[in-house]
Structure formats: structure tokens, C-alpha cells
Amino acid sequence: MRIKSYDIIPDLQLYIKLICTMECENDVDTSCIRVLPDACVELFLNYTSTPVAIIGDELHERSIVTFRMSRPTDIQMRKGTGVIAICFYPGMAYKFIQAPMHVLSDTTTSLTNIWGCIAAEIEDEMAGSSNNEVRVSLVQKHLFKELANGKDDLQIAHCIKQVGVSRGGISVGKLVCDTGLSQRHLSRKFQEYVGLSPKEYLRVSRFILSLGHLKRYPVFSLTEVAYKSGYYDQAHFIRDYKDYTGYTPGQLVRARHILY
Q: What is the per-residue DSSP string for the chain?
């Protein structure tokens, strides 16, 4: 599978983490890849007549949206597929989708169910475009138009920023204090915008941080990775890996079919 990343226009950089094209040009489907949970929502815009992928046991033929996952998911791209993949920062997809994220968590749905007939119009435009640069440009233009329809939540944006700055080390109590909301109210906002509670967001953020350490510092021991990622002990470190990947940290490092 060939993957190429593209620049994100300045107006969208606050909301979008990554834009890339993914093309499966071989005569056979790709090998099954295990994708690990995070707190992001992703769009896969299909510009071919080929079905996109088999996710779990379900074949998805057209453009899809994958919402925040709480468990690992096995994906197999179909031969001849070409898609533009857009990964939103945590809490930022709400601006473009405007649906409660906790209702849609752990689901993959057709983009038509979210954007209606506009999804088919975008697919047709992409299919008629001469190259991927043109396709990426028209998708970004559509997302820019959607900015005017969505709404921002400064309290959620502040919390997500603080979790990032603290590398997952901030407490839920501190987030509650910073926002001036009750813990219940803050939790409801997190569920709506992010798709999970503040406590679970801190947990998955710590897990994602540890994956980064595993990738960037292969010489670190697993004990060092756990410590640098904010885990209090090995038991919590191993528990999160089993929940989020289906493997222990040591098994994950040796696996070749896991994307992280």
C-alpha cells in the first residue's frame, strides 16, 4: 500500500492532525492490519469504484467515517482502492460532523449517513479529478466551508491542550477546577465532543504516549517506557496494553501486523 501525506491549509490545522492518500495498487488485498485505539475520528473518502476495506467482518464500499475506538480493530484494504484519509485531533471532528461522539464511538459508518448527498457529490468530484493533489485540495475546501456550520467549545479545547502539555499527567480534578464546571458537567461535554470521559481520555492519552516512546526509543526497556509515560506500576501498563491492543507490551513490540 502506498501512503503519501499532504500539507494542511492554515485554517484547518487546529482541527486536522493528518491528511494523506492511501492507495492499494497490488493485484491482491492487503494483509490484515490491526489498528489501535486512540481518541481520533477519521474520514476515508473513496475516489475509486472499488470497495474501501473490510473492517472487522464488514465490507465497506464507499466513503466511511471511523469514530473513536475503545478496542483494537482489524482492517484489510481492498485491491485497487484509493482513498483520502483525514484524521482529526481529539474533540475536533465535532466541528464537521455535529453529532454526539459518544453515541457513535466504536462504529464505522457510511459518510452518506453523516453528510447526506454531499458525500456522493464529493466522491464524484474526486473521481473526475486529474490527480491526488487536486482531490486533496477540493476536500479541504469542503471542510473549510463546514467550519462556519460547526461550533467550538473553548473549555474542551483547553482541557485537551492541558492534557497534551502535561503529557497526560494532569488530574481530572485539575481540569474540573480550570473549567469551573462540575465533574458531571465536564464529563457530559467530553462525551459529546470527544466520545469518552475525562478519566478515560487521560488513560488513552497515556497509552498513546507510551506507543510513541516504544517507536522512537527502541533501546528503552519496557519498565523505562512505562515510567516515562506516567504509569504508576507495571500492572497498569500491562492492563492498558491488553485492553487496547490485545497483547502485552512485549508481544506488541514483536508483532508486525499492528499499526501504531
A: -EEEE-PPPGGGTTTEEEEEEEE--SSSPPPPEEEPP-S--EEEEE-SSS--EEETTEEE-S-EEEPPPSS-EEEEEPTT-EEEEEEEPTTTTHHHH-S-HHHHTT-EEETHHHHTHHHHHHHHHHHTSSSHHHHHHHHHHHHHHHTTTS---HHHHHHHHHHHHTTT---HHHHHHHHT--HHHHHHHHHHHTSS-HHHHHHHHHHHHHHHHHHH-TTS-HHHHHHHTT-SSHHHHHHHHHHHHSS-HHHHHH-SSEE-
